[in-house]
Design goal:
This protein is of the alpha+beta class. The chain has one domain. The chain contains three helices and five strands; from the N terminus they run H-E-E-E-H-H-E-E. The protein has a three-stranded antiparallel beta sheet. Strands 1-2 form a two-stranded antiparallel sheet. Strand 1 and strand 2 form a beta hairpin. The longest helix has 23 residues. The protein is elongated. The relative contact order is 0.20. The model has no long low-confidence stretch (mean pLDDT about 85).
Length: about 130
């Protein structure tokens, strides 16, 4: 990955980029409540991955605190232990599929209540004229 540090960057309206609808979210998540070592906690869990979405700007959500997720899922139940692994595999699938289709990471956004949701914004790379 490389960044052209000398190019002028115009940042998109962050809230508009994220709030424009779930049809741009490649990973659909839900909240899973579990009894972690520190007591009951609600964690973001992957429900579905849609790497075939087609839009000028797509969003790949990532957990707000992956290391906390690792700590809270360090329990005997294998279903709960899978939550961080499922996130890694979902983001891997999404990034690989979109990169193959000509998308590139354009920005990192935080939005939602208390800016608790984190997303990579991917946009189509301009096609090189032959």
């Amino acid at each position: 990955m490389s960044w052209d540090l000398k190019s002028e960057v115009r940042r998109p309206d962050r809230e508009a980029s994220v709030s424009s609808g779930p049809e741009r979210r490649v990973i659909r998540i839900g909240t899973r409540t579990l009894a972690g070592p520190g007591g009951p906690i609600g964690l973001e869990a992957v429900q579905d991955v849609k790497p075939d979405l087609d839009a000028d700007g797509l969003l790949i959500q990532v957990p707000r605190d992956f290391y906390r997720m690792l700590r809270e899922t360090d329990v005997d139940d294998p279903d709960i232990r899978r939550i961080p692994f499922d996130w890694r595999m979902a983001t891997r699938q999404a990034f690989q599929a979109l990169f193959r289709r000509g998308y590139a990471v354009a920005d990192f956004l935080r939005a939602g209540k208390d800016r608790a949701e984190s997303f990579y914004l991917l946009k189509r790379r301009p096609r090189k004229e032959e």
